[in-house]
Amino acid sequence: MYAMVDIPLSPFLRPTRNSRISVSSVTLIQSSSSPSRPMEQHQHQQRVVVCGGGVIGVCTAYFLAKKGASVTLVEKSSVACAASGKAGGFLALDWCDGGPVASLARASFNLHLSLSEELDGPQSYGFRPLTTLSLTIKESENSASCSKSSGNSSLPSWVDGQTRSPRTIGTRETTAQVHPQLFTRTLITKAVENYGIEIVIGKLDRLEIGGGRVESVVLEGGRVIESDAVVLALGPWSSKLELLSSLFRVYGLKAHSIVLEPKDADAITPHALFLSYHPSHGGSPIDPEVYPRPTGEVYLCGMSAEAEVPDDPEQITGNPESIRVLKTVAKTVSSHLGEGEAEVKAEQACFLPCTDDGVPVIGEIPGVKGCYVATGHSCWGILNGPATGAAMAELVIDGHSSIVDLKRFNPARFVKRK
């Protein structure tokens, strides 16, 4: 059994205002060129095209290349430009236990630990264990007069709003975090440097299929990329491809978030907060989440609703009212996060890919040999990216997955229902 050890203190884990790693410190690759491939690789490499530069596509490409495939990653905009760059990056070992995703989540959490050791996660992309708390908080009519309602020692000192019922729901052995954009871009950078993955920036137009087998990927503009296998990791944009939308529905859940940089970043301890937040005007409580990051920033998310997914991920903007509510939540939770005490670094939204049965779709497309799909991970995409990618690599190269049993995720389940 893995025993979580304390990560050594570093300038990244104990940031100062002059020693923080930023997103720009990890190379964003938008070139279609790639370094030459090692001579010792097999003469007949399997050519695999992975469509989608989010965490699922990048993890799949990474593990495929490690298994010796010749991999081309196709992304319309830029790597981790959508949910994989705007998510919370929260990881949990056992929160999916008892459900269909339990084995996937546990395998992926352990892979995150391995990848952190392999890629120097604490320094490269902010991997660290967390204590995770659940608590109820009431918005005051006069937010300036908020004060901590109890001296509960389980609460970190920076949480000074009117809270009650705090309880620990995750320990440093069972919950952790990454900076999702840094994680995804670190992984693809290593994949290019170490395994010669080619990245092509272009929009998928269609797949060429002959004799019931995928033959190539065709991009807008006419470029054809021949392939032995194709993996479609399109997230909520799966609904835009008829091959997939004719089999099952993937809809987008629009989630909002803000990123704050408090003046006194050293006061914010690594405690993730899952809130039951009661607005001052009454009405139903909402369930925002708060994630301090070792970059010195604090990420807050919530205010989700199903919405139409735009064609271009760069067109996604947040709803002003949802952003306003999150700012109110921030200052209610902590005086360190209020206006004047914290700078707003980002106001954003992204689309989480969801399926009608709440279970990801991972496997070969029925009736199309060599064509695979991996999507529908909802809010657990960052957590489940590594095991999904490793399982897809095994499925494509070996014909079966050993790291996770993929039967529950097979897209053929939708065909049977029809």
Automatic annotation (TrEMBL):
Offer one Pfam family short name for this entry. DAO
Question: Which is a Gene Ontology cellular component entry for this protein?
Answer: cytoplasm
Q: Which UniProt keywords apply?
A: Oxidoreductase
Region annotated Disordered sits at 143-166
Tell me which domain of life the UniProt entry assigns to the organism this sequence originates from.
Answer: Eukaryota
Question: Signal sequence: where?
Answer: none
Keyword Oxidoreductase recorded: yes
Q: Which residues form the FAD dependent oxidoreductase domain?
A: 47-395
- Which segments show compositional bias classed as Low complexity? 143-157
User: What Gene Ontology terms describe what this protein does at the molecular function level?
Assistant: oxidoreductase activity
Question: Is the Transit peptide keyword given for this protein?
Answer: no
Q: Under which name does UniProt file this protein? A: FAD-dependent oxidoreductase family protein
